[in-house]
Amino acid sequence: MIATSFIALFMGFWAILYLSDVYLKTSLSSQGKYLDFIHKTGLSIYVCQIRWYSTCLNRQFLRFGQWRKNFLKVWFTIGVVISLFFTFISITLLTLMIVNTLRKRPVEQQVLTPVMPGVNIPTNQIGYYLLTLLVCGVLHEFGHAIAAVREQVKIHGFGLFILAVYPGAFVDLSTEHLTNLSPLKQLRIYCAGVWHNIVLVILALVFRLILPYILSVFYSTNASVVVTSIVLGSAVSGPRGLLVGDQITSLNNCRVRNIAQWTMCIEKTLSEKSTGYCVPAEFIKQYDISQPNILKTMHGNVECCSNSSSTHLCFSYFTKTTKVKPNYACLPARSTSDRQTCKLQSDCYKPNSPNFCTTPSLDNSTRLIRIVHTRRAPLLFLGHPLDLHYSLTLSDYTPRSSFVPVHAPYVLETIANYVISLSGALALLNVVPCYALDGQYILMAILELVLSPFLEKSSRLAIFTVILLFGTLLVATNVVIALWVLFH
């Protein structure tokens, strides 16, 4: 339902925008003013696309491109070497992906993963994704522009665009100046965008590594995980559930010091049977409110509590006289789960007091999870552990003061992670010799540089066409595979 509404709003927005543009361009009453407006602003509207083009940054590009020319020459030459190395890595990875798919081997991680907001990107992270994608694209094009000025290629202008929901950037270079350059100078320009994306990835990785030290004045780590957001309507939301800022220290008997341990504890509750609790016989006798006439089987488990009971849960246990068929008792869930945990009856042995290992009577996918946090009494979660996992957004950083914002480390980490993945993807994809990507022009310059002394232009063009076709098919096949994996 949400996806259908999103698609309807998306199509409606672009339809209204495009039709409004057509009307304003053809209407006699508004045509003159509107055409003058889009000419001055540099805006242009197409089907599912809007563009902004300007020459206002040309002077800045000229200033950067003329700064320390010898340094920039070395800088962009290093970019050529690194980009060519990445070309072999990218082609190898994309080829292995196809080979593994044909061999029907499991593919855990896609090299190319189409990003669909709301499908494989949480809705609360769409803003981070779009902003990071725009920044990575702008820095990519800045690399081309500065390298072009360094090689005395004229820049006509710079622009931004939104294609459907994806933002991007482009730089308009003089084709005549580019083609008159030597192949090595062309390579410095063509590889500059990829090189800047690689540098951006390195900077983001370094930032992620030193972030705990940067934030150590305001946040502590490795003591608990902090709730930064909660899905509305989930089982742990509401006044009696968890709150933003709560510090979770354990799930059942599993200690939680960081997000990695949180994930491990969730996996542990999935793989193991429900945790039992050591309960004295007197406790069962005093608090059991089950009645034999309401004992019934539901979804493979026995339910012995009435539907009106919201604080009690049905537990099973064995006694010396009932070693095969268990007994059932409807006990207060909180008082029972506060006791010592057990897996076997022997874990509850006491010489002078009979104790039983009582286990919640639940189906195979449901667990009773005791969430210990710092503000109030432990929270009891009854449901599938993955529902708990997806209901919360957590952070490794615990604020040292109530005045320190809880969300800041999460925001910084999320942006850094998107920079690493998106800028890395742009670098890895653009070096492939594929039609309309940087790799197409990189390939052309390489063939001119290496083969021009040995082969005629027609032969070099034939080799270029074959390799370009291979690279285009390679990228297209991986995109098809990635789409198939995403929606199956």
UniProtKB/TrEMBL annotation:
E.C. number: 3.4.24.85
GO biological process, one term: membrane protein intracellular domain proteolysis
Entry's localization field: Endomembrane system
Keywords: Membrane, Transmembrane, Transmembrane helix
GO cellular component, one term: endomembrane system
Keyword Transmembrane helix: yes
Predominant place of localization: membrane
Reactions catalysed according to its record: Cleaves several transcription factors that are type-2 transmembrane proteins within membrane-spanning domains. Known substrates include sterol regulatory element-binding protein (SREBP) -1, SREBP-2 and forms of the transcriptional activator ATF6. SREBP-2 is cleaved at the site 477-DRSRILL-|-CVLTFLCLSFNPLTSLLQWGGA-505. The residues Asn-Pro, 11 residues distal to the site of cleavage in the membrane-spanning domain, are important for cleavage by S2P endopeptidase. Replacement of either of these residues does not prevent cleavage, but there is no cleavage if both of these residues are replaced
Pfam families: Peptidase_M50
Membrane-traversing stretches: 6-25, 74-99, 126-149, 155-175, 187-211, 217-236, 435-455, 462-487
Residue intervals of the Peptidase M50 domain: 128-470
GO molecular function, one term: metalloendopeptidase activity
Topology in the lipid bilayer: Multi-pass membrane protein
Function: Zinc metalloprotease that mediates intramembrane proteolysis of proteins such as ATF6, ATF6B, SREBF1/SREBP1 and SREBF2/SREBP2. Catalyzes the second step in the proteolytic activation of the sterol regulatory element-binding proteins (SREBPs) SREBF1/SREBP1 and SREBF2/SREBP2: cleaves SREBPs within the first transmembrane segment, thereby releasing the N-terminal segment with a portion of the transmembrane segment attached. Mature N-terminal SREBP fragments shuttle to the nucleus and activate gene transcription.
Entry similarity comment: Belongs to the peptidase M50A family.
Protein name (database record): Membrane-bound transcription factor site-2 protease
Organism: Dimorphilus gyrociliatus
